[in-house]
């Protein structure tokens, strides 16, 4: 069965505390969601502001494949605002629980029902497609909920939505009221689940199993309070989990774009993804413990329920006090380093000692330890920084000049940036191009000695568009040059890893 994905990142997602998007940002997000393959985009709530109306107008006029929807209370002025921005599809809602009716709307059940019916009739008279939500449905009297859904169906609603507004439902209960709604109306039913008890995705899946045809979701699960059901978890759950024998769930989502979309949207909205988040979190395909690494190296299925490539990611290993010889050898192999069995054990001993001291062992330390144990020179370097200057100050944008030597050939470039380090990275990437398109994920600056002539130590972690990561550390007197040197080291490591990976694939 094909499940319809109604994305509300631009409406409920934007209701995340502290998030506000400009019309241009909303448009690029809508384009990204369309590329991902969502079936419907809730572009916003037209009545709330001028900027919101501009954004929705841009989105409705962008020629996207997805259906574009806008939110409206059961008020004529909200529905008129939706029409004014070119919407042909609205999501109209009114609360139906006694708590909301008494304390928020100050309406009786009958008055709310009447408003719902009038709004649906009005929207239909304007030729709109109408999805009706009974806000706080899961805390609404069960018989009254059925009555409301029946009445709006008779008034012409095209779709019904069951919002679990405060994430209060259990998977069993939402399945029951989904069945009630389908039996009473025979309309396509959506579910809209919030994550206050961490059950948003479980509740949405349960409703779908009970017959709902559509889920309202957001990228990275962003939204009011604890957020909404996350698109990436729901989609992968539908596609990969074991459901009834003869029932398969599918969506139109291009799952290979999930990670990239998650990162893109996280950056624009300014909400970081927690590292242990399923599917798109930093650690979702990372392995440290020796037992797990060993298992994954002999067959990834041992500790990975799905392959990372399916969601546009790559697996990675981390060394630390739980590491084992197989993992250490595999990580070094990524840089073309092949220690003997004895050397591997010696490296492992040193890593475990650092781990016992509570130290986080990055690949910089691992390479340092391996070099020490194997009495080897540093890694092969493909890119060398041979010339560099940067101008910065108040009132002019930082500007960098960079000269690189790549495998014996010199290249020069210049660029601007938000700061001197950013300007330098932009100039470097003008030369190295796509192959080293990295972003600096972590940046740490320490002072090694005191005073204004102190030595500084810069530790960075860089990541490329495919999720390949590398850490690098540099020590020097000048913060900007030291930072740039660390970035060049990081780029070298990512390039080296990539070249070795390609070589291995070609073998
Ligand atoms: O969570 C909710 O109830 C909503 C409504 C607007 C449907 O977002
Ligand atoms: Zn909501």
Please tell me about this protein's structure.
- The chain has 507 residues and is of the alpha/beta class.
- The protein has helices at 23-36, 50-60, 76-84, 98-105, 109-125, 142-154, 171-185, 200-209, 231-240, 258-269, 290-298, 325-333, 341-356, 363-374, 420-432, 479-506, and strands at 4-7, 40-44, 67-73, 89-95, 129-135, 159-164, 189-193, 214-217, 286-287, 316-317, 383-391, 399-406, 409-416, 438-447, 456-464, 469-476.
- The chain is elongated.
- β2, α2 and β3 (67-73) form a beta-alpha-beta unit.
- α8 crosses α9 (231-240) and α13 crosses α14 (363-374).
- The strands form four sheets. Strands 1-2-3-4-5-6-7-8 form an eight-stranded parallel β-barrel, surrounded by nine helices. It has a three-stranded antiparallel beta sheet with strand order 11-12-13. A three-stranded antiparallel beta sheet has the order 14-15-16, with helices on one face.
- The protein binds 3-methyl-2-oxobutanoic acid and zinc ion (ZN).
- Residues 12, 71, 93, 133, 135, 163, 165, 192, 194 line the site of 3-methyl-2-oxobutanoic acid.
């Amino acid at each position: 069965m094909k499940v319809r994905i109604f994305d509300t990142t631009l409406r409920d997602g934007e209701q995340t505390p502290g998030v506000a998007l400009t019309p241009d940002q909303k448009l690029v997000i809508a384009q990204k969601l369309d590329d991902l393959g969502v079936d419907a985009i809730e572009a916003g709530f037209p009545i709330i502001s001028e900027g919101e109306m501009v954004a929705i107008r841009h989105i409705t006029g962008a020629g996207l494949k997805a259906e574009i929807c806008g939110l409206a209370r059961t008020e004529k002025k909200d529905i008129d605002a939706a029409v004014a921005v070119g919407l042909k599809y609205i999501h109209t809602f009114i609360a139906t629980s006694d708590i909301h009716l008494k304390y928020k709307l100050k309406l009786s059940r009958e008055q709310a029902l009447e408003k719902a019916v009038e709004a649906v009739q009005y929207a239909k008279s304007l030729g709109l497609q109408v999805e009706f939500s009974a806000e706080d449905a899961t805390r609404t009297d069960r018989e009254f909920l059925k009555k409301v859904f029946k009445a709006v169906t008779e008034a012409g609603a095209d779709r019904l939505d069951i919002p679990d507004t405060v994430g209060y439902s259990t998977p069993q209960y939402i399945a029951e009221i989904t069945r009630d709604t389908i039996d009473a109306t025979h309309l396509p039913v959506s579910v809209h689940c919030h994550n206050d008890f961490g059950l948003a995705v479980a509740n949405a899946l349960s409703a779908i199993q009970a017959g709902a045809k559509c889920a309202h979701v957001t990228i990275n699960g962003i939204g009011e309070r604890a957020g909404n059901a996350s698109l990436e978890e729901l989609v992968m759950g539908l596609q990969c989990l074991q459901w009834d024998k003869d029932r398969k769930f599918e969506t139109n989502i291009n799952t290979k774009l999930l990670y990239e979309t998650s990162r893109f949207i996280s950056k624009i909205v300014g909400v970081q993804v927690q590292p242990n988040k399923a599917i798109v979190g930093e650690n979702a395909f990372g392995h440290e413990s020796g037992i797990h690494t060993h298992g994954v190296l002999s067959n990834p299925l041992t500790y990975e329920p799905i392959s990372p490539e399916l969601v546009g990611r790559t697996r990675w290993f981390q060394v630390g006090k739980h590491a084992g010889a197989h993992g250490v050898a595999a990580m070094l192999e990524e840089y073309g380093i092949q220690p003997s069995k004895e050397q591997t054990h010696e490296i492992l001993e040193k890593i475990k000692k650092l781990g016992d001291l509570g130290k986080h062992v990055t690949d910089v330390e691992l390479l340092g330890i391996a070099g020490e144990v194997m009495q080897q020179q540093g890694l092969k370097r493909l890119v060398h920084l041979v010339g560099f200057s940067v101008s910065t100050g108040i009132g002019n944008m930082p500007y960098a000049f960079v000269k690189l030597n790549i495998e014996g050939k010199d290249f020069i470039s210049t660029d601007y940036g938000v700061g001197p380090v950013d300007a330098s990275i932009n100039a470097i990437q003008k030369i190295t191009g796509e192959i080293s398109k990295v972003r600096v994920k972590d940046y740490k600056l320490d002072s090694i000695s005191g005073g204004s002539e102190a030595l500084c130590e810069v530790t960075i972690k860089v990541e490329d568009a495919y999720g390949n990561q590398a850490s690098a550390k540099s020590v020097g007197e000048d913060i900007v040059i030291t930072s740039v040197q660390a970035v060049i080291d990081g780029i070298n490591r990512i390039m080296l890893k990539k070249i070795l990976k390609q070589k291995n694939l070609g073998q």
